[in-house]
Design goal:
Helix content is about 50%, strand content about 20%. It is of the alpha/beta class. It has 3 domains: about 65-230, 2-Layer Sandwich (Beta-Lactamase), CATH 3.30.450; about 295-445, Reverse transcriptase/Diguanylate cyclase domain (Alpha-Beta Plaits, 2-Layer Sandwich), CATH 3.30.70.270; about 455-710, Alpha-Beta Barrel (TIM Barrel), CATH 3.20.20.450. It binds ligand C2E and calcium ion (CA) (2 copies).
């Protein structure tokens, strides 16, 4: 069975729709990281440039200060004043650079800045006096006395790219100074490091590959040296901070997004669930949960549309529970509900996934089978359904038994329209019911018109009474001798708006089966009594079904109808059949006595078709017997019947009863019946059943004495 497969898929789709959110968050985080990384690199480059620039600047300022300071301290005012600019330094440097030494001493003429002598050697400052001496000694300036070398203040000079890193000035005599140099000391580096905020500034040999290095080449062609320091981590740290922040932000955003999403999803799901429930409710039977008629018809229409051109067909099984009403009446509605639910489940268990079972209402179900290859598989299922229904239903220890009747039709064989296929199944169901219920029947095209009409009666007769679609026609019974109208028999007709005039032979028994005979009979009797008043002196025969007669209120109803109509009871003749008498003779007798005490006349209808007619004649107080038409029919063929008719008439007369012969069609019959002493004759020879108006007309003609009644056209 198919019930609501669609909605659950939505729920399954939800995690997928989270993917874009995650991807988005991922992208945002990724690009943030990229941007941050680039910014960090730029920041680092910028920072490096700044460090180098500051270093260069500081070195320049340092050397300047150093020179100025030296000039002031050593009283070399004029010299340095005069060469305050870079000239002196340039000259010093160019001189120094010519030497191949890391450390270096130089003698300068204080007066004019002329370089008098120079010498380079490593570790010059530790031995600078020695060096100075040897320099002085070896120089052409013999006049100088190395003992005059004073203790000068060591100063430091750092010069961008030039290699002078530290310098000590030693005044020699009045006019000469010794300038000694050596690499910058740790103190200087520490100071610079602090001032410039460049961490771990130190001097190394060579030019390391790291970006945080600044060349301070040795003197001349000496292997270059570099200032190196630890790169500032600020941008990276910022990046890390930013990263952490970004990560936290992203995670928060993601959490919020997920939370929002879940909320949205929850409410969307709730809406979907509500919608699904509403549409489910609209399309399903609330009790059994099975699809309803609308869904069934849709499915059937779809299956017919999907029918391939060959091989397979679609089958419809209409199921009608038997004795369900009894269950309801005996055990209550809860028990009825349980039976409906259990039966639905039992049938569902017999079906394939693709089959549909629906509850059409009340105790009616329908099953739709697709891809049917043979009728056998369908009838097998039908039998299984019947077996399932026949298994007892148990509730609270109470065992209930029902049955089911099944009508089967096929598409395309029995139609290609939903309505046609359903109608065919319904007709088949109707036949199965008539055949005794708790069985199945397949629709056959030869199912007769009669069956169709019987079904129609079933469906519409009750409404027909309300809609006044019933009508009465009257057939005269004439005096056998004079041919004058003695009484009329009321015969009911159904004027169906679509199917025209329907004969009582078709619908009376159906009305009896469906419990409609009582209201129908009451209607007939009322109408007949009212019409009878148009024909003073005439009796009106009314047919009474056995079921109607057995109804406890029957006698009361007859009395009421007579008094309502204001008709003398003696003009109403009830035509009863043997069926009235067979089942409960005592009750029948009592009823008849009551009717007789009302003054109503009683006729035994269809005499001769039953089995013990003579007994009835003796026991029950009839006023009249009506010899059945079949007697006359067989009379034609054999002489025996003629004798029988003769004796019946004779017997009737002997018992003091009136005798009517029905179905008189020929003059020959009339003559015979007249001859054997039949009182009244009824048949087409005199008149077919006609409308009340036509009876009026006949009576008018008769009373005018224009002539005898003549055959009339049937209504
Ligand atoms: P019935 O009581 O035996 O009524 C006589 C039937 O024989 C009528 O058929 C009538 O039209 C028909 N008939 C009369 N003369 C001739 C004739 O010369 N030749 C032939 N071939 N038929 C003739 P109808 O009207 O179709 O009624 C059939 C049966 O339906 C009635 O048989 C009666 O049993 C039942 N019926 C009719 N009306 C009522 C009613 O109001 N209540 C009940 N309970 N049954 C009714
Ligand atoms: Ca009759
Ligand atoms: Ca009859």
């Amino acid at each position: 069975m198919k019930i609501l497969p669609a909605r659950t898929q939505k729920a399954r789709g939800v995690p997928l729709s989270l993917l874009p959110v995650f991807l988005l968050v991922l992208c945002v985080m990724g690009s943030m990281a990229l941007v941050a990384d680039r910014a960090t690199r730029r920041q680092e480059t910028f920072e490096l440039d700044r460090e180098k620039r500051q270093l260069a600047q500081s070195l320049a300022i340092e050397s300047e200060n150093l020179l100025v300071g030296l000039a002031r301290d050593e009283g070399l005012g004029e010299l340095f004043q005069a060469h305050r600019n870079r000239d002196l330094v340039e000259r010093l440097l160019s001189s120094l650079n010519r030497r191949q030494a890391t450390d270096f001493v130089i003698l300068i003429n204080k007066a004019d800045g002329e370089i008098l002598a120079e010498a380079g050697e490593s570790d010059v400052l530790t031995r600078r006096r020695l060096l100075a001496h040897s320099l002085i000694d070896s120089s052409r300036l013999r006049g100088l006395d190395s003992s005059t070398i004073g203790i000068g203040r060591e100063a430091r000079l750092l010069q961008d790219g030039q290699g002078i890193i530290s310098m000590a000035m030693l005044p020699i005599g009045r006019s000469i100074i010794l300038v000694a140099t050596r690499p910058v000391g740790a103190t200087t580096l520490r100071r610079l490091s602090t001032v410039l905020g460049i961490p771990e500034l130190r001097l190394v040999n060579g030019t390391p590959a790291q970006p945080t290095s600044y060349p301070v080449s040795g003197f001349g062609d000496t292997p270059p040296m570099s200032l190196v320091w630890t790169p500032s981590r600020a941008p990276a740290e910022t990046l890390v901070d930013l990263g952490i922040f970004g990560l936290l932000a992203s995670v928060s955003v993601a959490i919020i997004a997920v939370a929002l999403f879940r909320r949205m999803r929850a409410s969307t799901e709730a809406i979907l669930m509500r919608e699904a429930k509403a549409s489910h409710d609209a399309r399903h039977d609330p009790l059994s949960g099975l699809p309803n008629r609308a869904v069934f018809c849709e499915s059937l229409a779809q299956s017919i549309e999907d029918l391939p051109n060959h091989d397979t067909s679609v089958a419809v099984l209409l199921l009608d529970l038997d004795k369900f009403k009894d269950v309801n009446d005996t055990f209550g509605h809860a028990a009825g509900d349980k039976v409906i639910i259990d039966f639905g489940n039992r049938v569902r268990a017999l079906l394939r996934q693709t089959d549909v079972i629906a509850r059409l209402g009340g105790d009616e179900f329908a099953v739709l089978l697709t891809s049917v290859r043979s009728h056998n598989e369908v009838t097998r299922l039908a039998q299984a359904v019947i077996d399932a229904a026949n298994r007892p239903f148990v509730m609270d220890g109470v065992t209930m038994r029902i049955g089911v009747t099944v009508g089967i039709s096929f598409a395309p064989d029995d139609g290609l329209e939903v309505a046609a296929v359903l109608r065919a199944a319904d007709t088949a169901l109707y036949r199965a019911k008539n055949e005794g219920r708790n069985r199945f029947a397949l629709y056959e095209h030869r199912m007769t018109e009669n069956e169709r009409i019987r079904k129609l009666v079933d469906d519409e007769l009750r409404g027909a009474i309300d809609r006044d679609e019933l009508a009465l026609v009257y057939q005269p019974q004439v005096f056998a001798d004079s041919g004058k109208i003695a009484s009329v028999e009321a015969l009911v007709r159904w004027r169906h708006p679509l199917h025209g005039l329907i004969s009582p032979a078709t619908f009376i028994s159906a009305a009896e089966e469906r419990g409609l005979i009582v209201p129908l009979g009451e209607w007939v009797m009322k109408r007949a009594c009212l019409d009878a008043k148009r024909w003073p002196g005439l009796r009106v025969g009314v047919n009474v079904s056995a079921i109607q007669f057995r109804h406890p209120d029957f006698v009361t109803d007859v009395g009421r109808i007579l008094s309502d109509a204001g008709l003398e009871p003696g003009r109403l003749e009830l035509e009863l059949t043997e069926g009235v008498l067979v089942e409960d003779e005592d009750h029948a007798e009592a009823g008849m006595m009551e009717l007789r005490s009302l003054g109503v006349k009683l006729a035994l209808d269809d005499f001769g078709t039953g089995y013990s007619s003579l007994i009835y004649l003796r026991r029950f107080a009839f006023d009249k017997i009506k010899i059945d038409k079949s007697f006359l029919d067989s009379m034609e063929a054999t002489g025996e019947s003629a004798i029988l008719v003769h004796s019946v008439v004779h017997l009737g007369r002997a018992l003091g009863l009136e005798v009517t012969a029905e179905g008189v069609e020929t003059e020959e019959q009339r003559r015979f019946l007249q001859a054997v002493g039949c009182h009244f004759l009824q048949g087409y020879l005199f008149s077919k059943p006609v409308s009340a108006d036509a009876i009026d007309e006949m009576l008018r003609i008769q009373n005018q004495g224009i002539g005898e009644t003549s055959p009339k056209t049937a209504a």
